[in-house]
Structure prediction request, 99 residues.
Amino acid sequence: MNQHLCSPKLYLAIFAGLLVLTGVTVIVAFFNLGPFNMVVAMSIAVVKATLVVLFFMHVRYSEHLIWVFVGAGVLWLGILLLLLMSDYLTRAWLAGLAG
Prediction:
């Protein structure tokens, strides 16, 4: 198995990017964007998580089997979020039947 070594400059650049994105998250939290608050916050969180997984967890330079397992984890997370949102969005339907 070949190991790919990244330069410390790359790690520092990614770390700086994560710090900037954390600052952007804090700044955006003070603005009222209405229904887009969650969209913006989750978008920033997805970008930060992607950077961490790709570079600090060394998935970027891993074998294809690792990519399959990462994809399976992301797919499973999507399924769980879909089921969560389907439950959350249909609770109002049941409240009307009970009353």
Q: What stands out?
A: The helical segments are 8-29, 36-56, 64-89, 91-98.
